[in-house]
Structures are given as structure tokens and as C-alpha cells.
Amino acid sequence: MAGKAAAPGTAVLLVTANVGSLFDDPENLQKNWLREFYQVSVSVESHGMALLVGCPRRCTPRALSRESRRPGHDRPAVVHTHKPHFMALHCQEFGGKNYEASMSHVDKFVKELLSSDAMKEYNRARVYLDENFKSQEHFTALGSFYFLHESLKNIYQFDFKAKKYKKVTGKEIYSDTLESTPMLEKEKFPQDYFPECKWSRKGFVRTRWCVADCAFDLVNIHLFHDASNLVAWETSPSVYSGIRHKALGYVLDRIIDQRFEKVSYFVFGDFNFRLDSKSVVETLCTKATMQTVRAADTNEVVKLIFRESDNDRKVMLQLEKKLFHYFNQEVFRDNNGTALLEFDKELSVFKDRLYELDISFPPSYPYSEDSGQGRQYMNTRCPAWCDRVLMSPSARELILKSESEEKVVTYDHIGPNVCMGDHKPVFLAFRIAPGAGKPHAHVHKCCVVQ
């Protein structure tokens, strides 16, 4: 597959996906999701293989049983289309709302990813699952998957404790308490970052890789959400936006501190970036009049109703804590929602530290979780580009710019017409140019087998 690609350089695929919905309806949504992620051949069986499960106190093999698959669809999936040599999948809310009840679904999902016939050419893998759901102090529900194609030689991963690169061989899964795993750094944001949430899972996991003589960090991140549409509407920018800026700034400072050599970095996950609610509502409801509904006992605002000034006072928008019901959803889909990008302002605070390719896909959240509604948004939040792939300025330089007309850099979403849960996965596909890391070769002298 990837080894047959004619284009120069090392093909890289970075995918971010909030997969919480998949564990609430695994029978339908997981199949959709996996089918869109990789192309499943018709009537094939997965290959049994032994995987190493890494735990703080023991390492025991977990055998993956052979399972038959139902026929898949013939449309090209993201892995099949881009044929990456190196692939990273960052998941958030892995295991869903109730991790303990979803453990069997978690195991099956991991098994499907690692033993699919469509993934058989990826002979090395690293999986890091935060399954320590009983620890409110540490649990982030993050899952990071890394797949290496058989044609890719001399791939190294950084050991943060030993401060050395180690050659990647075989397939390994690390779960439960990731704090003791030297191949990553993991932190959960302090509770006082988002005091409204009694039990937040938000945090980040960082790994470092050396691929094609290029060293780079990959950061799986999940930032704080908007707890109330009404609160988000009150000020511009919203209080939630400020909380996200604080957390993201902390992560960026952390990954460029003095403990390790500085390298390029890609940060991709669920940033929960939202549109400027006040500006969006004012634009969508320019000719509307607003009615305020208050609670009888507390006089607290519980609903805002925007009605057209004429046209029989038709309701255009109803806004409640967890309701954003706009009468015309097409505005979020027309031309991929481009008209709304001017209200996507949260990344501007980091314009000197983070770069993003132009967005040409519709808002990635919140889609309907009804498996028959692939394009429909839920009326819970204003649609927004929550899921992103961002990079440092130096990482941008690693991306190969083709001299031909061939498109070698793609920034898009997965499953535009298929229900993938409440979030559409977002991906960045590119190629690292041959020798792109050579000017900084002194940084990678530790890239030797340990």
C-alpha cells in the first residue's frame, strides 16, 4: 500500500477524533467509523496477532482472536486514499461517558484497529490508552495510536526518562496508569482551570518521534467545553474561550521548556474552539427581536427567543443552556460553512506559535448521533470547528511542497455523509521531504538503537 506510493518523501497522516459517541452505540457507529477510517475489504477476516499490554507492574501478552467481518463499502477511506507510512490517531473521550461499562467495547475497538486486514501492512504499532477511570486526579480518557508501515525503516521513539531515542519494533499497548510509561508525558489540567465542571477529563498526552531524520512531538489534547450557551453568549470573547487559552498556553509552554531539546510539534485533538457566540447570534438574527425568559423563582435567564420582526414573528433562534436551535441549518453547511469562519477567533491568540492550514470543511461538531443522520447537526450547540490539527512554525517547514500539480497536503474531515458520532474526525495528510531534517541533524544524534 504505502510502499507503492510514487510521490517523494515520507507520507504522514495525523487524525484527531473525539470518539465518545462510538461507545454509546457501538453496533452502528463503530462500524461506520472504522469503515470510513480504513477501507475494509469484502468478506475478509482479521489476522490474529499477539500484542504486548504494558502496565506499571507487569507486561503480559494479550491474544487477539480471529474475527470475521461483514462486507464493507467500496468508497475510499482516509487510510486507503492517503497510504501513509507513518500514521497517528489521537482519540478523546475514549471509552465514552461510562468507561467501566464500556471496557468490552474498548477492547473490541482496539482489536479492530490493530488486526484489520486493511491495516496488515502496518507491522509496528504503539497504543497508549488512559484507562485509569477510577482516578479523578489523573484520568483524561485520551487514547493515542501510532502505526508504522512495513516499508518504513529506522523509526525511533523518545524515552523521556532516559532522554534517548529507542528503535520501534513490534506492536505494544500500554494502558491503565500511563504516568509510569517513560515513552510519553501525560498531564490532566488542574481542576481550578475549569471549576464549573465537577469532574473534568481534560488534559494532554505528548510523544516524540524521529521519522526520516526529522524529530517532532505529537500532542493529543482535549480542552474545556462551553458549559452553557447562555454564558457563552453574554460576553465576547466568552469566559470559556479564556479558559481554553490558559490551558493551551500551558501546554505550549510545557512542550518547549528547557527539559528537552526543542523540536517541531503538531498539536491535534478536540480543542473545543467555538465561534464567537455573541457575534454569530447577532449576525444570524440581525433583523430579529429578542425575548428574554426568566425563571420564576430565581429571575435567572433560562431562555432567549429571537423572532423575525415581520413574517408573522417566526422564531429564528432559541437559546438555552444546552439548546442552540436555529431554524436554518444550511447556513452551517453551505460552502462548508465558510461564511462563519470570520467568527472562529480563538486560534488568533496563538498566531505566532501555532499554524493551521486553511479550513475547507464544515464545522466538525455537534453532529447528530443518530446513525441514519450523517449530515445533520444536533440543536445543542452552535456548530463549530472543535477538532483541529495545528503545528509549530518549524513543523510547517517539514511539510513537502510539491513542485508538480499533485496535491500532497490535505486538511479535511472524515465521513462527511456518514454518522461518525457527534464529532467528525479531522485529518492532515502530508509528506516529509527527503532530508528535511538534515539542517537540524545535531538534534537527532541520539537517534540510535538503545
Overall pLDDT level: 86
Low-confidence stretches: 41-74, 439-450
Multimeric status of the protein: single chain
C-alpha Rg (nearest Å)? 22 Å
* SSE-based structural type: alpha+beta
- Helix content, binned percent: 10-25%
The helix/strand order is EHEEHEHEEEEEEEEHHEHEEEEHEHEE
Beta-strand percentage? 25-35%
Envelope shape: globular
Instruction: State the distance separating the first and last CA atoms.
Output: 30 Å
Kindly report the spatial arrangement of strands forming the biggest sheet. 3-2-9-5-6-4-1-20-19
Q: Let me know the largest β-sheet.
A: 9 strands, mixed
Give me the number of helical elements: 8
Structural account:
There is one protein chain. This protein has helices at residues 26-37, 78-82, 103-115, 229-234, 239-255, 277-284, 330-333, 393-398, and strands at 10-18, 50-54, 59-63, 86-92, 124-129, 143-148, 156-159, 164-167, 171-174, 185-188, 203-211, 214-222, 264-270, 288-294, 301-308, 315-320, 323-326, 387-391, 410-413, 426-432. With 450 residues, it is of the alpha+beta class. A nine-stranded mixed β-sheet has the order 3-2-9-5-6-4-1-20-19, with no helix packed on it. A hairpin with a 4-residue loop joins strand 2 and strand 3 (59-63).
Task: Summarize the entry for a quick read.
By secondary structure, the chain is α+β, with helices and mostly antiparallel strands. About 15% of the residues lie in helices and about 25% in strands.
